[in-house]
What we know:
- By secondary structure, the protein is mainly alpha-helical.
- It has two domains: 3-186, Growth Hormone, Chain: A (Up-down Bundle), CATH 1.20.1250; 207-424, MFS general substrate transporter like domains (Growth Hormone, Chain: A, Up-down Bundle).
- It has 15 helices and two strands.
- It has helices spanning 3-24, 31-41, 45-73, 75-99, 102-131, 136-165, 167-186, 228-232, 235-265, 270-298, 300-317, 324-353, 358-365, 367-387, 391-424; strands at residues 206-207, 212-213.
- A two-stranded antiparallel sheet has the order 1-2.
- The longest helix is centred in the C-terminal third of the chain and has 34 residues, at 391-424.
- The relative contact order is 0.14.
Amino acid sequence: MSSSITSRTRWFVAAAAVGIHGSIGAVYAYSVYTKPLMAALGWRYEQVTLAFSLAIGCLGLSAAFLGRVIEQRGPQQAGRFAALCYGGGLMIAGLAIALRSPVLFYLGYGVLGGLGLGVGYLTPVATLIKWFPDRRGLATGLAIMGFGFGALLAGPLVVWLIAAAGLARTFVLLGGGYLTVMLVCAQFLRRPPEGWAPVGWSGSTHDPLHGAAAAAGGAEPAAALLSPRQILLTPRFGLLWLLFFIQVTCGITVISAASPMAQEIAGLSAAQAASMVGLMGLFNGLGRIGWSSFSDVIGRPATFMTFCVVQGLAFFALPLIAHPLAFQLTVFLIISCYGGGFATLPAYLGDLFGTRQLAVVYGYMLTAWSAAGVVGPMFAAAVRSHSGGFSGTLRYGAVGFAVALVLAVLIRLDQRRSSGVRKSS
C-alpha cells in the first residue's frame, strides 16, 4: 500500500472513530429518559439514575480489564463487540421497560451497555492515535469530539421518538440504529502497516515551550519498552491519574449541578438554566477538538498546566459572578477545558508511554473517570448540604486545581529528567 493511499486511509479511520463515539456519546443524554421512566413505570429517581451510574462504572472497568484483549484481537473485532454490547444493551433495556423489570433494565443498559461503552470508547482512540503520530492531539480530539456531540444530537431525537413510538420502542429503535452504525464503522478500524509513517514526518515534534524534542508527540519514549503493569507502577502514571481524577471530579461537579447553580448564583430562570445546560454540550464537544489540536502546537504538558490555571481561576471567580452572561461564559470555559482534558489525555499517554500498548494503559487511566463519576456528584452534594450553597463547592474545586497544577509540573519535571538521562547515556 503506497504512502499516499495509506495517508488517505487514516481519514476514513478517523471518520469511523467519530461515528462510533457519536453513537456511544448518547449516554450523556440519559437524563432525558429520567422523567418518562418515572412517569411510565413508577420507578423512583434513585432507581432510574442507578442504571446510568452502572453504565459509567462498567465503562471504566471494561476499559481497564479489556485493554489487553483489544490489542490482541484488533480494532475491527473489538469494534464489533462494542456494537453488539451497546446496541444489544439498549434493546434489552427496551424489553425490560415492556416487562416493567428494573433488574433487566440494569443488566441491559447498565452492565451490557456499559461494557459496550468502555470497549467502544477505548478502541477508536487507541487505533486512531497510531495513524496520527504527527498530530496526536488532533486525532484524539476528532474521536472524542464525537462523544461530546453525541448527547447534543441524541437528546432531541429521544424526545421525538418517545412521543412518536413510545418509551420501550425508543430504546429498541435506538439500539438497532446504533448497532448498525457502529458495525459499519468498525469495518474501517484497522491498524496502520508496520513501520508506516506519514509523508514528510521526521519522527519528532518540536516543543516550543521548552525547546525539547518529542514533548508534543514525537518518537516513542523509553517508557514504551515497559510492560503495562510496569507502567502502572511508575510515578508519572500515578501523578497523571491523580491529575485526571481531580480535573474530571471538578468538571462533573459543575455538570451535575449546573442548572441549580446558575439559578442560585446568577439568578437565571429554570428555562434559561436549561438552555445553558444544552449549550454546555456544544462547548464540551468544541473543547475536545479545539484544545487537543492546540496541544499539538504548545505540547501536552503546557496544555494540562493551562487547564489547571484556567479552571482554577474560573472556579474561584464563579461564585462572585452575578451577571448572567458572564456566569454562563465562565461555565462554558470550564466545560471546554473539561472536554479538552478527555481529548488530550490519550495523546499525552502516547507521549509519555508510547503507543505500542496504548489501549491497555489508557484503559487503566479511565478508571479515574469511573472514580470521579462517583466522587464528584457526592462531593458536591455533601459540601452544598454543609455550607448551604455552591460557593464552598467551587472554592474546594479551585484548591483542587492548584494541587493538579503541582502534579502537572511534577510530571513535566519527571519527563524532562528522563529525557536528560537518555541523552547523557
